[in-house]
Every structure is written in C-alpha cells, then in structure tokens.
Amino acid sequence: MKKEVDRNMTKRNGKQRLTLFMKPAIVKHAKAQAVIEELSLTALVERSLMKYLPKVTMIKRG
C-alpha cells in the first residue's frame, strides 16, 4: 500500500505551499523589506507570522 503524499507539501523542506491574495502595495513593501534583511519573502512572512501569532491558540467549542 502506497503512502499518500500531500500535494501541497514539498519533500525537500517539509513546508506547505500557500496561495494568498494581497494588496499589491503590501507585497511590494514585503519584497523590499526581504531584500533589505537579506531574507527570502517566505522567510520574512514566516518570521512575521511567528512574531504575531500567540504561542498557543485555544478554540472553545459549543
């Protein structure tokens, strides 16, 4: 039996592909900042989300 592979995951780095729709001005700003910080756009967005998101997210049901 073959193991099912998530098509959105890359084998090389274990990251998931994501498509977002954003205002062009925000994308331009983020790309420029990534160049200044010598990061990839992915690394900049990842770092920004990690700083923004809480360590733990609790979802209450019902």
TrEMBL record:
Domain of life: Bacteria
Protein name per its UniProtKB record: Uncharacterized protein
Species this protein is from: Candidatus Woesebacteria bacterium RIFOXYD1_FULL_43_18
Organism ancestry: Bacteria, Candidatus Woeseibacteriota
